[in-house]
Amino acid sequence: MFEAIDDVVKNKAEEKWQSLISQNKIDVVEEIIKTKSRQISFDSMEHQDVRTIGSEWLCYQGLEHLGLPKFLSKLGFDETQVALTLTQIISRAVYPASKLKISKWIRENSAVSEISGYPQALLTKDKLYKNPLELYKNKTFLEDFLSPKTNKSCNNLG
């Protein structure tokens, strides 16, 4: 199924395998350890707590590139408010739905909290309703900050 792998990757995988065995962090039958056979049965694989991360990560990188987290801090947002704001902006970009649906999507499907640093356990629809009001209070400052950056980027495309 997979092409031949680089020797460096193969050695790193073997080191990790041995580390997991020595720390008793892997459930394997003694026979597998003795034979060093580590084949995966795709029929028996299970996934738990699977979450999306690609689009969320791309949006986060864009916000970082624009300097938005630092700018929000300069506006007086504390670390938690910055993380919540990033969570909300990313979520609206990736999953444009109601705030109620977004809060459910974050809890059940997205890794946006892990990326933004906002504790998923603290996220509620009420916070998602309240947070934009804080952003709106700073609307002019945000526009003045973001407009030159986004206009410059757009002008470089053409």
Search tags:
158 residues, mainly alpha, 9 helices, 66% helix
Order of helices and strands: HHHHHHHHH
Mean pLDDT across every amino acid position: 84
Strand content is under 5%
Please describe the biggest sheet, giving its number of strands, its sense, and whether it closes into a barrel.
Answer: none
Structural class: mainly alpha
Rounded radius of gyration (Å): 22 Å
Overall morphology: elongated
The overall number of domains is 2
Q: Unreliable runs, pLDDT <50, ≥5 residues? A: none
Helix content: 55-70%
Distance separating the two termini: 43 Å
Quantity of strands, as a count: 0
Helix tally equals: 9
Structure description:
By secondary structure, the chain is an all-alpha fold. It has 2 domains: 7-37, no CATH class; 54-157, no CATH class. 66% of the residues lie in helices and 0% in strands. Helix 3 packs across helix 5 (79-94) and helix 5 (79-94) crosses helix 8. The longest helix has 19 residues, at 139-157.
Helix and strand topology:
Elements: H1 7-22, H2 30-35, H3 54-66, H4 68-74, H5 79-94, H6 99-108, H7 112-116, H8 125-137, H9 139-157
Short description:
This protein has 158 residues and is mostly helical.
